[in-house]
Structure formats: structure tokens, C-alpha cells
Amino acid sequence: MIAYGRQCIDQDDIDAVVATLKSDFLTQGPQVPAFETMLAEYCGARRAVAVSSATSALHIACLALGVGPGDLVWTSPITFVASANCALYCGAEIDFVDIDPRSYNMCVDALEAKLAAAERQWRLPKVVIPVHLAGQSCNMLRIRELGDRYGFAIIEDASHAVGARYLGEPVGSCRYSDITIFSFHPVKIITTAEGGLALTNDHGLAQRMELLRTHGISRDRALLQGGHDEGWYYEQVALGFNYRMTELQAALGRSQATRLDRFVARRRELAAVYDDAFVEENLVPPWRDPQAVSSFHLYIIRVSDDSGEGRRRVYDALHSGGVGANVHYIPVYLQPFYRGLGFAAGMCPQAETYYRTALSIPLHPSIDADDQAVVIEAVRKAVRN
Ligand SMILES: *Cc1c(COP(=O)(O)O)cnc(C)c1O
Question: Judging by DSSP bridges, how do beta strands 72-75 and 93-96 pair with one another?
Fold first, then answer.
């Protein structure tokens, strides 16, 4: 089966992990800070906080921004559930803004309309979490403008967009947001097995996230209240977690990050071949936003039959032909857990139409020309039947 996504591990990655395994530190050593510095510099952000997953990064990002009971957080329904769950971990409420039918990202016009309505009801969100679906940035310029007008903070869920660019700068610069989140799950652009990162230009937010990553415990004299100066002394000053990234993960991440641009270039090459191959098929190819350079975490095609049946047929045909297509994503609010909170079908019509027709076909740097030819033939055959 040709997987829709998978890691790309070479001998340098293996050597880096083995060397760290033989070193003095398996956790809380020099690799994590070095990985953080590397990615902060790559993105042009002041600070980076490495954690155990993008999910934990989203959680502590919300907490650092003060999200709690009584607060509202908004995100896109076309995302992985973690983008919404993070608000609920903090005791806040979640709501969803429909997507743009062309980019599949949060629709800024829908966001603007929903904000105007929310203002009249005194129910404005504290944080909005735009998700850069498939690696193509949302319209951050307008989301930032709306954030300034309505007073919400912004967390970019850039789990798909490591190595992507927006208006000439790396995604992760945080020029338009308070915090940007990366994921290093094996299907993402670079991997640390499990792992995530929170980038920010705000030292206070970075300090808060560092504290929450390690139980809320600090040895930083500036943060302590007790006035003690014993060498062993530390204080728990907040209710934190153990969300640390290990040294093995960070060593793998550092090694992977040296190939980040190559991975993205290869993904973009493969995407261009797909674009050309499917011109004659009755498929909607991914829209290329001229303001963005996508990292192409996913290559999403749209089948023309929007009953859901056509997509089902193509998915099944591809799987029987050894092509591991997948669907990203089921609208989050249609999950049984979210229906249990009161959400119902019909809430975001664009997201639901998208869901019935979208299919992600294999795209990752380990796909060679032969694999890609197999995928192209299988897709052509499946959509013509
Ligand atoms: C993968 C992903 C996450 C969660 O990442 P983990 O590192 O697995 O916790 C969050 N949001 C989006 C959009 C993702 O694709």
C-alpha cells in the first residue's frame, strides 16, 4: 500500500538518535534547546518551546493566553480534532467558523460576519485558531486585522505548514499571531516520532508555556516567591503538566530540520506532477493562493459527485489498487462527542460539502516516480468508472 503520508528517515537521523542515546541526557539536556533555537531562527520568531505533541502545544498555548471557563475559542471544522479539543481542556467553549470553498481554510468573510453577530450578543471569542490546511496559510493579514478590531488572540495551527511561507516570510514567524503551533507526527513535514512546537515573539508567553510544560515548576530565581537561595530549591507556581520533548526526539528533529527545505521542495514537485496529470479528469485540484507557498502536507482532490457516493467509490477503488488515500477531515462538530455538546449537521454547509467530496492522495518525499505513476493511473481509472 502506498501510504498517503509517512516519515522519511535516513542514516544521519539514525546516527543522531543513537549518539544521543549514548550521551548523558535522555531528557532535559542540550538537544531540546538546540532544536528550539534552530526552528526559531528558521521561522524568524523570537522564541520556541518544544513539547511532546502539537496537541500539548495547543493546550499550553491556550492556557498561556488565559483561556478558561466562560471563554470562547473558535476554529475551523475542517481540521484534526486537537485544534478544538484544546479549548475544552481549558474548560472553555468551542465554536466553528465555516471554510472557504476554494482554500478549505477558515473563511474570513464568515469569520467577520460571525464576529459582528457575536459582538451584538457580547459573546466574542478570546482566541481564534486558524488552521493552515494541507500546508497553505490562511489569510492571516485579514485575520490579524479582525483580531485587532475585536480583541481576540490568535494561535496558528500550522501542524501541516512547517516549511511553508506566507507573504514572503516563513509560517511560524508569528507576524500575524500570538503563537504558532507545529506538529512533528510522522506523517507531517518533519518528524520527531511524536512532538510539537509553540513559536512566539512574546517572552512572557514563552515563559508561561515553558512553566506549563514542566509541571508549573520553576528554578528561575526571578519567578520564585519564597526568597530561598538553597541550591536544591524549586517552587511549583502554576498547575502544569509533563509535556516535555525528550532528547532523542529533539536530536531526530534537528537532523530532520536540516532537510526541511528539501522535503518541501520534493512535495511541491510531486504536487505539480499531480496537477498536470489530472488536468483532464473531472477533479478539482488544490487552489494555489498567490500569497502563500504551501508545504503540501496533503494533496487533496475533489470528486465531482457531491452525494458522497462518488468519493466512496474512488476511495475503495484506490485502496483495492494499493493506493492509501485518506480523508482530511470529517468536520469536527459531527463527531459523536461534539454532537453530544449540542452541535448538529447543517452548521457549516461549506465544510460539509467539502467533506463529501475530498480525498487526500499519497504525497510525501519517499514517493518516487514509479509510485506516483501508480497513483496517477489508479486515480484516473477510479474517477472514470
Ligand atoms: C496532526 C495535527 C494536530 C495534532 O498533532 P499531534 O502532534 O499529533 O498532537 C493538530 N492539528 C492538526 C491540524 C494536525 O494535523
Answer: parallel
Q: Residue 106: which pLDDT band, with cuts at 50, 70 and 90?
A: very high
Rounded CA separation 7/260 (Å)? 12
> How far does residue 41's CA lie from ligand 1's centre (Å)?
22
Evaluate: CB of 54 within 6 angstroms of ligand 1.
Answer: yes
Query: Cα 202–206–210 angle (5° rounding)?
Result: 170
**159 within ligand 1 shell (Cβ under 6 A):** yes
Tell me the one-letter amino acid at 365: P
Whether 221 has a pLDDT exceeding 90, the answer reads no
C-alpha 147 – ligand 1 centre gap (Å): 24
How far apart (Å, rounded) are the C-alpha atoms in residues 111 and 99? 9
* Terminal-residue alpha carbon distance, the chain: 21
Distance of CA 104 to the CA centre of its chain: 14
Q: Which atom of ligand 1 is nearest to the CA of 183?
A: 7
Centre of ligand 1 to C-alpha 270, Å, is: 23
Closest CA to 311 of 359, 377, 381: 359
Ligand 1 pocket residue status of 82, Cβ below 6 Å: yes
Do residues 146 and 118 make contact, with C-beta atoms less than 8 angstroms apart? no
Which atom of ligand 1 is least distant from the CA of 57? 9
Is pLDDT above 80 for 223? no
Q: How far apart are CA 83 and CA 362, in angstroms?
A: 23
> Mean pLDDT for the chain?
96
Grid coordinates in use for 25?
Answer: 541526557
Parallel, antiparallel, or unpaired for β 196-200 and 179-183?
Answer: antiparallel
pLDDT (tens digit per residue) in 50-82: 999 999 999 999 999 999 999 999 999 999 999
Cross-strand pairs, 257:
none
Type of residue at 155: I
188 CA closest ligand 1 atom index: 1
In sequence order, the β-bridge partners of residue 134 are: none
Ligand 1 atom with least separation from CA of 194: 7
Residue 199 CA to ligand 1 center (angstroms) comes to 15
